[in-house]
Amino acid sequence: MPNRMDRGFYMYQQEFEDKALQVLRSGWYVLGNEVSSFEKEFADYTGAKYCVGLASGLDALWIAVRLLKIGVGDEVIVQGNTYIASVMGITMNGATPVFCEPDAHFGMDPEKIEQLITDKTKAVLVTHLYGMASRMDEIVAICRKHGLKLIEDCAQSHGACFKGQMTGTFGDVGCFSFYPSKNLGAFGDGGAVVVNDKELTPGWTSSRPDC
Ligand SMILES: Cc1ncc(COP(=O)(O)O)c(C=O)c1O
């Protein structure tokens, strides 16, 4: 049976159609108030301080690696069972992916990370698959111990928490996709990154009202 992307649309058809008409009639088709209010609401929802909307989850991933100044000659530890975009976020920056096996719940296995760390390792990129969070307390502790950056691929984990904290807010950058089939899907491609560190946000305009 083919994927039905329109089920959610029919559940809220009137609201979606009213909003689409409002946007069409506003004449503002790129960025604008709709995008910045979404960025604020999404930052608020995740509990992160800052959010910027992007064109896709892949964009979020390569921009995350770039924001952290990781590139040629650097290694990033990434799950072997993740979607290709997590790996491309690393390779598009010229860095080298080093694959870590998952645990029994398809998350990154914290017990297998340390043996992969070399003097070239700059970051760990963890993917929360199938709406389930990886074991973030152990992963954060390893990153802190070794001075590594931490990137979260949350393309499949909108709303998923680990011990009450939203995925995307444990590390340096949380990366989201709003591809139509995701937990939070758009009518088309979309993505976002969330961060807490102001240093990573030069030129960003959107933040939670209280930050
Ligand atoms: C785990 C994971 N990472 C990244 C992506 C890439 O997101 P996008 O299709 O929006 O580029 C996806 C979605 O396809 C995904 O499932």
Written account of the structure:
With 211 residues, this protein is of the alpha/beta class. It has a single domain, classed as Aspartate Aminotransferase, domain 2. Helices cover 30% and strands 19% of the residues. It has six helices and nine strands; from the N terminus they run αααβαβαββαβββββ. It has helices at 7-11, 13-26, 32-46, 57-67, 84-91, 136-146, and strands at residues 50-54, 75-79, 96-100, 121-127, 149-153, 161-162, 165-166, 173-177, 191-195. It has a seven-stranded mixed β-sheet with strand order 1-9-8-5-4-2-3, sandwiched between helices. Strand 6 and strand 7 (165-166) form a beta hairpin. The termini are far apart. The model has no long low-confidence stretch (mean pLDDT 95). The structure holds pyridoxal-5'-phosphate.
Helices and strands, with pairings:
Elements: H1 7-11, H2 13-26, H3 32-46, E1 50-54, H4 57-67, E2 75-79, H5 84-91, E3 96-100, E4 121-127, H6 136-146, E5 149-153, E6 161-162, E7 165-166, E8 173-177, E9 191-195
Parallel strand pairs: 2-3, 2-4, 4-5, 5-8
Antiparallel strand pairs: 1-9, 6-7, 8-9
The chain binds pyridoxal-5'-phosphate.
Residues 56-58, 82-83, 85-86, 127, 153, 155-156, 177, 179, 189, 191 line the site of pyridoxal-5'-phosphate (PLP).
Structural domains: how many: 1
CATH topology-level fold name:
Aspartate Aminotransferase, domain 2
Instruction: List cofactors, ions and other ligands.
Output: pyridoxal-5'-phosphate
> What's the number of helices?
6
Fourth-level CATH superfamily: Type I PLP-dependent aspartate aminotransferase-like (Major domain)
Mean pLDDT: 95
How far apart the termini lie comes to 46 Å
- What is the number of strand segments? 9
Q: Largest beta sheet, briefly? A: 7 strands, mixed
Strand content: 15-25%
Radius of gyration from CA coordinates: 18 Å
Kindly report the spatial arrangement of strands forming the biggest sheet.
1-9-8-5-4-2-3
* CATH class category name: Alpha Beta
Helix proportion of residues, in percent? 25-40%
Q: Could you list the spans in which at least 5 consecutive residues all have pLDDT below 50? A: none
